[in-house]
Amino acid sequence: MDKEIQSLVDKGEMLPLMEEFYTIQGEGFYKGTAAYFVRIGGCDVGCHWCDVKESWNANLHPPTKTSQIVENAKKYSDTIVVTGGEPLTWDMTPLTKGLKAEGLQVHIETSGAYKLTGIWDWICLSPKKMKLPTQEVYEKADELKVIVYNKDDFRFAEEQATKVNDNCILYLQPEWSKRDKVVPEIVDYVMANPKWKVSLQTHKYLNIP
Fold this sequence. Notes:
Elements: H1 3-11, E1 14-24, E2 34-40, E3 63-65, H2 66-74, E4 79-83, H3 93-101, E5 105-110, E6 122-125, H4 135-140, E7 143-148, H5 152-161, E8 169-174, H6 179-192, E9 196-198, H7 202-205
Parallel strand pairs: 2-4, 4-5, 5-6, 6-7, 7-8, 8-9
Antiparallel strand pairs: 1-2, 1-3
Helix pairs in contact: 2-3
């Protein structure tokens, strides 16, 4: 990558774009809502069960002008979901300013491991044990989504729930490959601890992206 492009990436004026697509939000509070997804490459959090490991290496995804991402997004939906990878690896300020200037609702799905940049209408925080979120994102998160892979994740979920704000909605979501085992455990847990809700990857059941 030449120095000029690297400088634009460092400023968030270009971003390593992995993919962008119009679909139905499958998870969390906005499940069932039509949304345009912008998947940004680059992540070093390293979840072993990640279902988009191809997003990890930012160098595999072409630096794309933020203005072009905005132009593409506004054609499809009023709701834009920025995901990754880990989008907060990069400065999200130019992208979100551009999207907000078009009157769009802008959501992020993040581990919260890096500085919170950008202007967000909805923050879905999905914390990971390997790199915990920053204090700021705990305070601003609209929903907390903890992925349940094994029983220790219930302990981790409760620990994380003590750190978010009082209005944050709490979700437990089965890791897809373990769903047959952990869904019954999550159901029992939520019934015993009703401050939590169940989140499912409904887009996978619908067989859509």
